[in-house]
Design brief:
The protein is mainly beta. The chain has a single domain, classed as Roll (Pnp Oxidase, Chain A), CATH 2.30.110. Helices cover 13% and strands 46% of the residues. Strands 3-2-6-9-10-5-4 form a 7-stranded antiparallel beta sheet. Strands 1-11-12-13 form a 4-stranded antiparallel beta sheet, with no helix packed on it. It is globular.
């Protein structure tokens, strides 16, 4: 079946998603982040989550070489960070307030929730690679509203962001 890629992307945009920044430590020690909206839970027992990364991403080599990653669920006020880390060449989170987790991964301090993971598997997903992670540690905040993405725009639970 052949399809119009732009129309397909527009149709997918009708599914509202949360926005996350996935962080990792590069082999050179650089704290790296990338914006994704492909995060999902897979299993409660064992605790598994997934996300996907475009093979064309300039961060692809870092995440393929890393055995661990951290999913940071963004607060509605983090649109600027999400936008910055979605652009090619914008990968450093050195200037962001971070904590070190139990796995020494960088955790964004303003995240609503975070999940420190060991890579359980990587699967071919066409122009993306699907990362499945075993959750080793997690935490969350009771308050706050998530950053959402719907039909090509950032949104919040109370309206547009």
């Amino acid at each position: 079946m052949s399809h119009d890629s732009r129309a397909f992307r527009n149709a997918l945009g009708h599914f509202a998603t949360g926005v996350c920044v996935i962080t990792a430590q590069g082999s050179d020690g650089e704290a790296v982040g990338v914006t994704v909206n492909s995060f999902a839970s897979v299993s409660l027992d064992p605790p598994l989550v997934l996300w996907s990364l475009d093979r064309a991403s300039d961060r692809f080599p870092v995440f393929m070489a890393s055995d661990h990653f951290c999913v940071n669920v963004l607060d509605g006020r983090a649109q600027h960070l999400s936008h910055r880390l979605s652009r090619k060449g914008e990968r450093s989170i050195a200037d962001e307030p971070c904590a070190k987790g139990k796995t020494a991964l960088p955790i964004l301090q303003d995240a609503l929730a975070h999940f420190e993971c060991k890579v359980e598997a990587r699967h071919d997903g066409g122009d993306h690679v699907i990362f499945v992670g075993r959750v080793l540690s997690f935490d969350f905040k009771e308050g706050g509203d998530p950053l959402l993405f719907y039909r090509g725009r950032y949104r919040s639970l109370s309206g547009e962001s």
